[in-house]
TrEMBL record:
Residues 4-234 form the ABC transporter domain. GO terms for molecular function: ABC-type maltose transporter activity; ATP binding; ATP hydrolysis activity. Belongs to the ABC transporter superfamily. The lineage of its organism: Bacteria, Pseudomonadati, Pseudomonadota, Alphaproteobacteria, Rhodobacterales. It comes from the Bacteria. The keyword Transport applies. Keywords: ATP-binding, Nucleotide-binding, Transport. GO terms for cellular component: ATP-binding cassette (ABC) transporter complex, substrate-binding subunit-containing; maltose transport complex. This is ABC transporter ATP-binding protein. The keyword Magnesium does not apply. It comes from Pseudooceanicola atlanticus.
Length: 238
């Protein structure tokens, strides 16, 4: 069964259609990247999957369950954004455990899950620090840690690295790839950066004007781009 299924998904803002009938299946453990130029609908589609944006038409299924009309909290997904506002007065551990605490989880369970996530993210030694005493990359890891503790079916990332400098972006890209190998969870990752897409993706979905221009492995897109738009976008010689 697919982790995430989109069937004929459309989005209208008033009488403007920005998502124009998307069909897609994301397998458990698969890393899917949405790419395309600014304004093509990447964030809107991701927000619809996460439940932050209503779906005008079509269905969204998570683990085979129709969640089209479910609020974000009922979907078993988690979203990681570029602006990873951490609570400044809380420690790393408190930031990571906060959503579990508000959900009423017992302290032992919170400590255990935060500890496990900290190990994966190499934050063990930083759990007592405040966000202001962390580097940009460490803060981004804490933001991801907040998502991991909730044990989601899938992770949704919207350009999570775009606020970081070039060197840190490369480092965090490796971290995200490692995280994916380690967790084996489905991930949908939005970026306008071709290099990020080519290095992270099992499959790339190229979006153009709210439609899928092509879906395929990085190699398929590079070697056999469906049209000039995809070729130019992927940087294929053809
Ligand atoms: P991307 O993330 O690929 O840059 P978006 O999903 O943010 O693109 O936007 C897709 C299109 O939808 C754009 O034309 C944008 O202006 C429009 N759009 C996004 N959000 C809204 C909104 N809340 N109301 C009206 N139009 C919107
Ligand atoms: Mg966007």
């Amino acid at each position: 069964m697919s982790a995430i299924t989109l069937q004929g998904v459309e989005k209208w803002f008033g009488d403007v259609q920005v998502i124009k009938g998307i069909d897609l299946e994301v397998a458990p453990g698969e890393f899917v990247v949405f790419v395309g130029p600014s304004g093509c609908g990447k964030s809107t589609l991701l927000r619809m999957i996460g439940g932050l944006e209503e779906t005008s038409r079509g269905q969204i299924l998570i683990d085979g369950r129709d969640v089209t009309d479910q609020p974000p909290s009922g979907r078993g997904l988690t979203m990681v954004f570029q602006s990873y506002a951490l609570y400044p007065h809380m420690s790393v551990a408190e930031n990571m455990g906060f959503s579990l605490k508000t959900a009423g989880a017992p302290k032992v369970e919170i400590d255990e899950k935060v500890g496990a996530a900290a190990e994966v993210l190499k934050l063990d030694a930083l759990l007592d620090r405040k966000p202001k005493d962390l580097s940009g990359g460490q803060r981004q890891r804490v933001a991801i840690g907040r998502s991991i503790v909730r044990d989601p079916t899938a992770f949704l990332f919207d350009e999570p690295l775009s606020n970081l400098d070039a060197a840190l972006r490369v480092e965090m890209r490796y971290e995200i790839a490692k995280l994916h190998h380690r967790l084996e969870k489905a991930m949908i990752y939005v970026t306008h950066d071709q290099v990020e897409a080519m290095t992270l993706a099992d499959r790339i979905v190229v979006l153009e004007g709210g439609k899928i221009a092509q879906v395929g492995t990085p190699r398929e897109l590079y070697e056999r781009p469906a049209n000039r738009f995809v070729a130019q976008f992927i940087g294929s010689p053809k």
